Amino acid sequence: MTYVDYDVIIVGGGIAGLTAALYASRQKLRTVIVTKDVGGQLTLTASIENYPGYKSVSGYELAAKVLEQTQQYGVEILFDEVVEVQEKDGVFMIKTRGGYELSSEALILAFGKTPREMNVPGEEKFKGRGVSYCAICDAPLYRGKRVIVYGWGPQAFEAVNLLCDYGNEVILVHRGKSRLDPTRLPSNCVERFEELPETIIKEIKGQDKIETVVLESLTDGSRRELKVDGIFVELGYVTKTDWIKGFIELNESGEIIVDSYCATSRRGVFAAGDITNIPYKQAVISAGMGAIAALSAYNYIQEKRGGAKLKSDWKETLKE
To answer: Of residues 137, 164, 189, 262, which has the active-site annotation?
Structure first.
């Protein structure tokens, strides 16, 4: 059999991808998640009150807990973006924006929506070297540093609070008018927090790492350079499925079409979560689909290898 890097590659680190990784790794499949962030759209929600087992939990907290659970089983995470996928002789090969090439026997697409980028000079250069789209993942790397949170809304406030917990000096930059209630900030954040409303980022500068950022005022057009160590982008999410058009079947909305086993139109490729044509976009449904996709991928691999498959119907295990 041709050597492959992994049994399963999971594209996407939201609740669907994390759950798929948990189930795949528990079946002892070599598993890697390729994602730009952890939690995805889940982190847009400050309080989730309809996820089983929790009276109330923030999206950040839920994502962090599932991430910790998956890592207990040796799941690897590559913080990058997939830009190309191919299949050759039953092996799937992906290429990432960062230049990585990985292969696997099965592929699970669970990338939901992708973090929106700033689209400014320097952003591409410093991705993973100062520009982050995942506060949960990267906040510990900037302990005691001066960082910018760029964006507005619950996810930006969560990022501010999280970064304050690591002793950072945090600057919230956004294009809206100042509406921030200081009472929403934790006590350890007040003295190390600054808000720059009606301001946008125009350029990121530096050599091997970020050194300064160019800010522009939306009120008078003036610009200034600010010394920072990192930028956490919190601008929401967009749907990106152009890179898989023609590889698998999509519907008119650009969603991946799946069956009851989360199988796509291409054998060996499965999909889960909000990127699919499921009618309800809920975290608990995405998590369930992630589990189905992982178990379906396991059975697909076992069938290829001539091994025993998991029972798909509990009734089959009962004795008459």
So the answer is: 137
